[in-house]
Amino acid sequence: MAGVRIFRSLEEARSRFGPSALTIGNFDGVHVGHVRILRRVCDAAREKGWTPSVLTFDPHPTKVVAPGRSPRLMTTPEQRCLLMEQEGIRQVLILPFTPEVAQLKPEQFAADVLVQALDVKAVLVGENFRFGHKHAGELGAKLGFLVEVVPGVTIRRAMVSSSEIRRLIESGNVSRACRLLGRPFGVEGEVVRGHGVGGKQTVPTLNLSTQAEVLPARGVYVTKTENFEGARWPSITNVGYRPTFGGSELSIETFLLAPLDGPSPKRIRVEFLRRLREEKKFDSAELLKAQILRDVGRAQTYFCRVPCDN
Question: Which CATH superfamily is domain 5-152 in?
Answer without folding.
Answer: HUPs (3.40.50.620)
